[in-house]
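Fold this sequence, please.
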Amino acid sequence: MAKPLLKIQRYFRRKPVRFFSLILLYLTAGSLVFLHSGFVGDSGPGARGGRDSVIASEMGSRTSLSDARGLGIMGRVFKETHRSTRRYGPPWMKKARQEGQEIRTGGDYTNNWNRALKGRNAKDVDEGRAKYIGCYIDDTQKRALRGVSFFDYKKMTVFRCQDNCAERGYMYAGLEFGAECYCGHKIQAPNASESQCNMECKGEKSNVCGGANRLSIYRLELSQESARRYGSAIFKGCFHRPDNVTLALPFTAVVQNMSVDKCVDMCTEREKSLAVLAGDRCYCGFPTPLFPLHELENEDMCLHRCHGEEFESCGNDEYFVVYQTQVQDNRCMDRHFLPVRAKQLVALASFPGAGNTWARHLIELATGFYTGSYYFDGSLYNKGFKGERDHWRSGRTICIKTHESGRKEIEAFDSSIIMIRNPYKALMAEFNRKYGGHIGFASQAHWRGKVEPSGPEFVRNYAPWWASHTLDWLTYGKNIHVVHFEDLKRDLFSKLKGMVQFLGLKVSEDRLLCVEGQKDGNFKRSGLRKLEYDPYTPEMRASINELIRTVDAALKKRKLSGVPEEYMPR
């Protein structure tokens, strides 16, 4: 090793000009990298990378604390580039730039027939997130909470555990040994003395995170759209028996001592996305037009105790209990670029924070074709939006995301789907994206802080754009199809079907049913996190309400339905 270094030293001593030239090139390259990183800041929709940092492991038997140390929270951050020449915003912003639960002691500790099905409307929450319900015994051979689990021996906090369990739709979150988090839809163990939950959280010394084989358990308040689970399976509801059950659910078996676990495991092994319980019979299959899961029945109709599980219902001959397994429904997963260049450009236009990325996810699954973008966002590309790298005029994508407004930009498109969302929700979603990325959250300090833009300044600048964006597209758009974010959430099948038809494609109902089972995508924020403060002052509300009325009137003038009722001020 010394000889090559000696030769290099002699070479540069004989030719010092080359040595200094090399040093100069090195410093120049470093300066360019530094300047580039400064520009890749907050200059567009792709300015912040997506971060996805939750890894959950299935519940298993833990023989010792040291055995579990290998399971940790893993994260990765996607670093992205941005086409800095593209910016979006209202025309005036462009000019400015130029210029109470009881503790039980035995039996089922969360009520018969699965509190995951009935207890989710509880209002006794603490700090708007969760309510502490007590210290419980945890047996390593038979867990008190039998959903997913994860461990962090350096940074575990109560909220971190609650947030991760809520994101997966669980009713309960429990902390143990100061660093372990367990999730579940019911508590299957007796309570213990509060003094036995005595270990501080590793990442939050002021709070208690259980004890040795003792869980500090919280009941979570989930948002309405949060899934309800049994272990890894998602509870879909109680449904009436389909007319042709053999054709609708082709695989069936009689199971001795039937339980939810047995049916879910059997259907998972057979790679079916639905596990359907009907007494002692288990059916497996996929959602189809014969069994679309669109007409929910009252859950009381499915009340029939499982023979192999005392606290669960297994349905009966007429009313089926349905769970979605972890098996991926691949009927809607294939995506490609258009085989022939599109003759017309279709915009997917929205105000930032109005659900454009979610709509792209739905459209790609429903049509099988990639969507494009007027911008470039590396985090979206890394998550599978392969049309992100194409130029928006390439003609290879089924539609093009844009937040642009103004006549020139709008008339560049031949037709457009306009996404509209409640401005109160859209403004907060975009503010969260600016400070927390696609699935993160801005803090109260960001809202009230001195870092520009603060919350009030953001609302003052962006709220008028929410209205002007829609008004511009209604005025200059050549062929428009309006979709309200809230309507799409409520009735995904029919609204998405209308979007596919507007794009000029044949509708596949099997594909749409597949989309319903995978509707969230990779950019859904947690269902637990709630604002602990009111971000909007009376003056802000008065201004936003007037903008809502203006947009409502403009929609009706175009013979379109007005804004959804929940937008309108009370």
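The longest strand covers residues 130-137. The mean pLDDT is 78.
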